[in-house]
From TrEMBL, chains A, B, C:
Taxonomic source organism: Streptomyces niveus (Streptomyces spheroides)
Protein name: Glycine transporter domain-containing protein
Keywords from the UniProt entry: Cell membrane, Membrane, Transmembrane, Transmembrane helix
Family under the similarity heading: Belongs to the UPF0126 family.
Cellular localization per UniProt: Cell membrane
Principal location class: membrane
Domain of life: Bacteria
Amino acid sequence: MFQELFSPSVQHSLDLAGIFVFAISGALLAVRKNFDVFGMAVLAEVTGLGGGLIRDLIIGAVPPAAFTDLGYFTMPLVATVLVFFLHPHVERIQGAVNVFDAAGLGLFCVTGTVKAHEYGLGLTASAALGLATAAGGGVLRDVLANEVPSLLRWDRDLYAVPAIVGATMVVVCIRFDALNGLTSVLAVVTAFVLRLLAMRFHWRAPRAYNRRSTAAEEPPGPKI
Amino acid sequence: MFQELFSPSVQHSLDLAGIFVFAISGALLAVRKNFDVFGMAVLAEVTGLGGGLIRDLIIGAVPPAAFTDLGYFTMPLVATVLVFFLHPHVERIQGAVNVFDAAGLGLFCVTGTVKAHEYGLGLTASAALGLATAAGGGVLRDVLANEVPSLLRWDRDLYAVPAIVGATMVVVCIRFDALNGLTSVLAVVTAFVLRLLAMRFHWRAPRAYNRRSTAAEEPPGPKI
Amino acid sequence: MFQELFSPSVQHSLDLAGIFVFAISGALLAVRKNFDVFGMAVLAEVTGLGGGLIRDLIIGAVPPAAFTDLGYFTMPLVATVLVFFLHPHVERIQGAVNVFDAAGLGLFCVTGTVKAHEYGLGLTASAALGLATAAGGGVLRDVLANEVPSLLRWDRDLYAVPAIVGATMVVVCIRFDALNGLTSVLAVVTAFVLRLLAMRFHWRAPRAYNRRSTAAEEPPGPKI
């Protein structure tokens, strides 16, 4: 049933598009970090394929899709070539890149959750892996670039929440046997729109209780 | 036989307690790094479940226990909520947290070694995975927080050695067919007490030979 | 057929030598980062075995060879002891270490590609895993040491290219059914010599287009 959410060719095209925009973000970070063209390609591959790779290793789907589908492997290389020659232009259309990245986030949190559930995981675990699929590539990208993952940072617009909402909608639909093409698209669109709104209005998640006051930024006592 | 080391419910409660205290250390680091509440949850999950996840991926136990037991997944969220509202108090009882962390270290180095051996690994490899189970979560935590893993740092009290001693005791017992509830508890307690002593007396491991003199800190020649 | 590329004992000795020299580089970095002896051992193990571990997890060869062959596990410990007592001397012969590291690179990009193909991966995916086998340990080493992976950095001599060339030669030979002991050795030697030449003449890969001018180093506009 799940395989019929979208027709296989539509699903595949969407996957390729999602991998491509994630890879763009990896290649752009590589340029900012002053990496060479091979560093760009490695970071693009890791960003585009990393989330699905983590999911596939955990559910035991080996070899992972990233290594069995030549198209998946090729998209990050295309992204690398594009950014290599055109990166000032790509940076200029950062807004457009962010919109596509939001689309990738929405898509992957849904397909990741569905695939994890197909492999027999429970509902909560499936939703957690949906989040890992959507956000894992970006975390690996930041770790390899030796930066604090932007997923975790307080001063970035909400990224995890839209993916969590989308994944949760999927598992609720599965629970009530209502997962079909329509509800899947609805979950993708919800996560996508939430992420767009988060970027538009700079929604942030709260930090721990007493860090919200400025005084807490510089605690008087010694730190461990 | 191995499954009967502890009764299943006792074993499960101990696992949950160990995951909880590890998750507390992850959530506290997230607060110090100024992450938002989702960053805290991610770091708590990774710290609490990461060691067992690495072990399960390596021995081929997929999906890993972290994704099949809802309790395992929930404990880090509880730890996040607690730290979110009470983190100044949690930091104040850092000493108590450290004691529980030492207990988790002792417990996980033993259960990790036993599980790896159950899956057919040799004695040395099992002990190595026992160490990875006990210390892996903390290493992932530090890598995600973009810090040098405290496991590796010279200026931290011994952490690996107690786990290595506990894991070694287990494989010696397995070798001589003497692994039972009593010897397991003995291994847990030994690792636990060694870690407490290391913290109490600030035991440190030596650095490479000529770095022990202060002069070596600033070598005259050019560095690569 | 593939198993007969080299006689098993020759293959095993070469693997041990490659693991050993990679582990040396890990232990040396640990000394520079001021880690203690256990941090040295952990970094040596990760550097020596990490590449093969990544490959084995992805192709589903669990438990990975790193955990089933005691010799693989022991070599990094030997490297640690050596560096611990003799590291000023080891640093002095850095040139020799680099030559051995280049040999390990050439060897592992070939054996990694062959093993991935034996497990049923396609030609492109096998070559990608050959690169991951050869370079993955060094990337894990740098991530654990909280440094930007030298594989990705612009200001380091070519490292990925020789491995990519070696792995590509292997898959071309497989494609035309010409993989045998002779062509395998040829691929190893080609990667090895390319890496030596890259170090000798400081070959670098280009960075993205407009970063090549000095002016681009300090872009005038605000950065994201």
